[in-house]
Design a protein that fits this description.
- With 273 residues, this protein is α+β, with helices and mostly antiparallel strands.
- Helix content is 37%, strand content 27%.
- The protein is built from 9 helices and 11 strands.
- The protein has helices at 13-20, 28-46, 94-120, 122-129, 165-173, 197-209, 215-220, 249-254, 267-272, and strands at residues 53-63, 66-76, 79-86, 140-147, 156-157, 160-163, 176-181, 187-192, 221-228, 237-244, 261-263.
- The longest helix is centred in the middle third of the chain and has 27 residues, at 94-120.
- It is flat.
- The model is unreliable at 1-11 (pLDDT under 50).
């Protein structure tokens, strides 16, 4: 027997918001798509001297009487990134966590269908998007489900990456991703995601599968099972949860990561003090 919250104990916050607030949240999905597209475009424009790209769009692509609504699609180099956006307000119980995973699984199915549609009609899709098609390029189509509330980021569902707008957009902001910092500007250890445009194109998929921002959580969170004594009952009670195990700074610095880890010369003297 394990501990859980029954669905009758309370309603989810999302349902409470929908019923109680005057603001209509039924169109939250379309609003989130706009936010996602604008965020990506603002960053790409700021790095126009580095990336070769087509700006992100939310677009219905129509070809031969068939159509697909793409929540967010953009290109940088040979990579065509196809995003299925899921705006999920909150996950506040086991029930809503289960429902979130169902929504993300559905998103994975949708984005794979849309990817195949674009793949089968690649040149026509470029025309629909107003992009120039280069027949000499071997385009790589990358499907992603973007979850607005960040839950399940870093997971793979049905071979599709689950990510969020922060991790996705961060890749284009800078090639450096801090691990340990003294403050916002001064870093003691940092990952190098890429060193040039060619590496940026090549490493993008690896970044999505291995977000450096989650590296510590992945290495230092363990699954824990604890038992509650129940001498007066004839059954056992178990509590299953994730806990952070103890670790020190040197273990962090010497661990193996998907991306190279650079260190400031003063880091060891700094952590000892």
């Amino acid at each position: 027997m394990s501990s859980f919250i029954t669905p009758n104990l309370f309603r989810t916050v999302e349902y409470w918001l929908r019923d109680s607030l005057p603001k209509n949240i039924e169109n939250k999905g379309h609003e989130y798509e706009k936010i996602l597209v604008n965020k990506i475009n603002n960053i790409l424009k700021s790095r126009s001297d580095f990336f070769e790209f087509n700006l992100a769009k939310s677009k219905t692509i129509k070809i031969n009487k068939k159509s697909e609504q793409i929540d967010c699609i953009f290109r940088f180099g040979k990579n065509i990134v196809i995003c299925e956006a899921k705006c999920i307000v909150t996950v506040d119980s086991e029930i809503s966590s289960h429902n979130t995973k169902k929504h993300l699984k559905k998103g994975a199915e949708q984005v794979k269908r849309k990817l195949n549609f674009i793949k089968d009609n690649i040149e026509e899709s470029f025309k629909n998007l107003g992009w120039s098609y280069d027949c000499e390029k071997e385009y790589s189509l990358i499907p992603i489900v973007i979850n607005s509330n960040k839950v399940f980021t870093g997971h793979i569902i049905d071979d599709v990456i689950i990510s969020d707008d922060l991790i996705l957009s961060r890749y284009f902001e800078s090639e450096i991703i801090p691990l340990l910092s003294k403050d916002k500007e001064n870093h003691l250890a940092w990952f190098i995601a890429y060193r040039n445009q060619k590496e940026a194109e090549h490493n993008f998929k690896k970044y999505l599968y291995n977000p450096p921002q989650l590296a510590l959580n992945k290495n230092h969170i363990v699954y824990n099972i604890s038992h509650i004594p129940t001498e007066i009952f004839d059954f056992k009670v178990e509590i299953h949860n994730l806990v952070i195990r103890q670790y020190d700074a040197e273990e962090i610095l010497n661990a193996q990561y998907a991306f190279p880890l650079e260190k400031d010369q003063e880091i060891y003297s700094y952590i000892k003090n």
